[in-house]
Design goal:
Layout (H helix, E strand, L loop, with lengths): L4 H22 L2 E4 H21 L4 E12 L7 E13 L2 E18 L4 E15 L4 E2 L2 H17 L3 E2 L5 H6 L4 E6 L2 E6 L2
Antiparallel strand pairs: 1-9, 2-3, 3-4, 4-5, 5-6, 5-7, 8-9
Protein backbone atom coordinates (compact mmCIF):
# COMPACT_ATOMS: atom_id res chain seq x y z
CA UNK A 1 0.00 0.00 0.00
CA UNK A 2 1.57 3.27 -1.07
CA UNK A 3 0.90 6.60 0.60
CA UNK A 4 0.59 9.58 -1.66
CA UNK A 5 3.05 12.40 -1.01
CA UNK A 6 0.25 14.96 -1.10
CA UNK A 7 -1.50 13.24 1.83
CA UNK A 8 1.70 13.28 3.88
CA UNK A 9 2.18 17.03 3.58
CA UNK A 10 -0.76 18.02 5.81
CA UNK A 11 0.29 15.46 8.43
CA UNK A 12 3.86 16.74 8.42
CA UNK A 13 2.65 20.33 8.65
CA UNK A 14 0.43 19.51 11.64
CA UNK A 15 3.32 17.72 13.35
CA UNK A 16 5.71 20.62 12.69
CA UNK A 17 3.22 23.22 13.93
CA UNK A 18 2.48 21.10 17.02
CA UNK A 19 6.17 20.75 17.74
CA UNK A 20 6.78 24.46 17.31
CA UNK A 21 3.77 25.46 19.38
CA UNK A 22 4.87 23.09 22.14
CA UNK A 23 8.37 24.53 22.04
CA UNK A 24 7.01 28.07 21.87
CA UNK A 25 5.44 27.74 25.29
CA UNK A 26 8.78 26.63 26.73
CA UNK A 27 11.19 28.76 24.76
CA UNK A 28 9.58 31.46 22.62
CA UNK A 29 11.27 32.85 19.56
CA UNK A 30 12.52 36.31 20.45
CA UNK A 31 13.98 39.38 18.78
CA UNK A 32 16.59 41.47 20.59
CA UNK A 33 16.63 45.25 20.77
CA UNK A 34 19.71 45.23 18.52
CA UNK A 35 17.92 43.22 15.81
CA UNK A 36 14.97 45.62 15.93
CA UNK A 37 17.32 48.61 15.69
CA UNK A 38 18.93 47.17 12.54
CA UNK A 39 15.52 46.45 11.01
CA UNK A 40 14.33 49.97 11.90
CA UNK A 41 17.38 51.51 10.18
CA UNK A 42 16.60 49.44 7.07
CA UNK A 43 12.91 50.41 7.25
CA UNK A 44 13.73 54.12 7.40
CA UNK A 45 16.14 53.81 4.47
CA UNK A 46 13.48 52.05 2.36
CA UNK A 47 10.85 54.60 3.42
CA UNK A 48 13.12 57.50 2.46
CA UNK A 49 13.88 55.99 -0.96
CA UNK A 50 10.15 55.47 -1.59
CA UNK A 51 9.33 59.03 -0.52
CA UNK A 52 12.02 60.51 -2.78
CA UNK A 53 10.95 58.33 -5.72
CA UNK A 54 7.36 59.49 -5.27
CA UNK A 55 8.54 63.11 -5.54
CA UNK A 56 8.50 64.13 -1.88
CA UNK A 57 10.73 67.13 -1.19
CA UNK A 58 11.53 65.79 2.29
CA UNK A 59 14.22 63.22 2.95
CA UNK A 60 14.78 61.48 6.26
CA UNK A 61 17.94 59.70 7.31
CA UNK A 62 18.76 58.14 10.65
CA UNK A 63 22.19 58.30 12.19
CA UNK A 64 21.09 56.43 15.31
CA UNK A 65 18.11 54.40 16.47
CA UNK A 66 18.06 53.10 20.01
CA UNK A 67 15.16 50.87 21.08
CA UNK A 68 14.40 50.03 24.69
CA UNK A 69 11.86 47.25 25.15
CA UNK A 70 9.85 46.91 28.35
CA UNK A 71 11.16 49.88 30.33
CA UNK A 72 9.87 49.87 33.92
CA UNK A 73 8.10 46.56 33.19
CA UNK A 74 5.66 48.20 30.75
CA UNK A 75 4.57 46.60 27.46
CA UNK A 76 6.01 49.36 25.28
CA UNK A 77 8.98 50.17 23.11
CA UNK A 78 10.78 53.47 23.62
CA UNK A 79 12.61 54.58 20.49
CA UNK A 80 15.29 57.26 20.49
CA UNK A 81 15.88 58.47 16.95
CA UNK A 82 18.45 60.93 15.75
CA UNK A 83 19.11 61.89 12.21
CA UNK A 84 18.49 64.49 9.62
CA UNK A 85 15.47 65.80 7.77
CA UNK A 86 16.26 67.71 4.62
CA UNK A 87 14.01 69.83 2.48
CA UNK A 88 15.15 69.47 -1.11
CA UNK A 89 13.79 72.57 -2.81
CA UNK A 90 14.93 75.04 -5.41
CA UNK A 91 18.16 73.17 -6.17
CA UNK A 92 19.27 73.41 -2.53
CA UNK A 93 19.16 71.07 0.38
CA UNK A 94 18.18 72.53 3.75
CA UNK A 95 19.23 70.00 6.39
CA UNK A 96 17.88 69.95 9.93
CA UNK A 97 19.28 67.65 12.59
CA UNK A 98 16.53 66.04 14.65
CA UNK A 99 16.26 63.97 17.79
CA UNK A 100 12.99 62.30 18.77
CA UNK A 101 12.04 60.04 21.60
CA UNK A 102 8.79 58.19 20.99
CA UNK A 103 6.92 55.45 22.80
CA UNK A 104 4.60 52.93 21.23
CA UNK A 105 3.14 49.46 21.55
CA UNK A 106 4.65 46.61 19.51
CA UNK A 107 1.84 44.84 17.66
CA UNK A 108 2.07 41.62 15.65
CA UNK A 109 0.06 41.48 12.43
CA UNK A 110 -0.51 37.77 11.70
CA UNK A 111 -1.60 38.39 8.13
CA UNK A 112 1.55 40.35 7.32
CA UNK A 113 3.71 38.19 9.66
CA UNK A 114 5.26 41.43 10.86
CA UNK A 115 5.71 43.59 13.96
CA UNK A 116 4.64 47.22 13.87
CA UNK A 117 4.95 49.97 16.48
CA UNK A 118 1.52 51.51 16.99
CA UNK A 119 -0.16 54.08 19.27
CA UNK A 120 2.85 56.38 19.19
CA UNK A 121 3.41 59.19 21.66
CA UNK A 122 6.09 61.83 21.38
CA UNK A 123 8.12 62.00 24.60
CA UNK A 124 10.90 64.41 23.63
CA UNK A 125 12.05 66.26 20.55
CA UNK A 126 14.69 68.72 19.48
CA UNK A 127 16.03 70.16 16.26
CA UNK A 128 19.29 71.80 15.34
CA UNK A 129 19.65 73.86 12.18
CA UNK A 130 21.61 76.91 11.13
CA UNK A 131 18.46 78.95 11.80
CA UNK A 132 17.17 77.47 15.02
CA UNK A 133 18.11 75.18 17.89
CA UNK A 134 15.64 73.69 20.36
CA UNK A 135 12.07 72.49 20.01
CA UNK A 136 10.24 74.06 17.11
CA UNK A 137 6.75 72.63 17.41
CA UNK A 138 5.64 72.90 13.73
CA UNK A 139 8.79 71.10 12.55
CA UNK A 140 8.69 68.39 15.22
CA UNK A 141 4.96 67.89 14.64
CA UNK A 142 5.61 67.36 10.91
CA UNK A 143 8.51 65.01 11.60
CA UNK A 144 6.45 63.14 14.21
CA UNK A 145 3.63 62.65 11.69
CA UNK A 146 6.15 61.29 9.17
CA UNK A 147 7.69 58.95 11.75
CA UNK A 148 4.24 57.81 12.94
CA UNK A 149 3.12 57.16 9.34
CA UNK A 150 6.28 55.20 8.67
CA UNK A 151 6.05 53.06 11.83
CA UNK A 152 2.30 52.48 11.44
CA UNK A 153 2.66 51.30 7.85
CA UNK A 154 6.13 49.75 7.66
CA UNK A 155 7.06 46.92 10.00
CA UNK A 156 10.07 47.15 12.28
CA UNK A 157 10.41 43.38 11.95
CA UNK A 158 9.08 40.77 9.53
CA UNK A 159 9.32 37.00 9.96
CA UNK A 160 11.80 35.57 7.48
CA UNK A 161 9.85 33.19 5.24
CA UNK A 162 13.14 31.66 4.05
CA UNK A 163 13.89 30.47 7.61
CA UNK A 164 12.01 27.22 8.34
CA UNK A 165 11.40 27.95 12.05
CA UNK A 166 10.14 31.48 11.38
CA UNK A 167 7.93 30.26 8.53
CA UNK A 168 6.40 27.69 10.90
CA UNK A 169 5.85 30.35 13.58
CA UNK A 170 3.98 32.36 10.96
CA UNK A 171 1.58 29.46 10.39
CA UNK A 172 0.25 29.30 13.96
CA UNK A 173 -1.71 31.98 15.82
CA UNK A 174 1.06 34.09 17.34
CA UNK A 175 1.34 37.31 19.26
CA UNK A 176 4.24 39.34 20.61
CA UNK A 177 5.00 39.92 24.24
CA UNK A 178 7.32 42.67 25.42
CA UNK A 179 10.03 41.46 27.78
CA UNK A 180 12.95 43.50 29.08
CA UNK A 181 15.39 43.77 26.18
CA UNK A 182 13.44 41.66 23.68
CA UNK A 183 10.17 40.89 21.94
CA UNK A 184 8.95 37.32 22.32
CA UNK A 185 6.69 35.52 19.88
CA UNK A 186 4.16 33.54 21.90
CA UNK A 187 1.01 31.57 21.16
CA UNK A 188 -2.01 33.87 20.83
CA UNK A 189 -4.46 33.58 23.68
Amino acid sequence: MSVKRSSLLPVLMILAVSLISGCASLSPYSISEGELERHLQDTVSRFDRQQLQSGSPLSLSLSDADITLGPDGRDVAVIDLSGQVALNALMTKLPVDIALKVEGAPVYDAEEKAVYIRRLQLLESSIDSPFFKGDLKPVTDTVMRAVAQMLETMPVYRLDEADFAQRMFGMVPMDVRVAPGRLEFVMAE
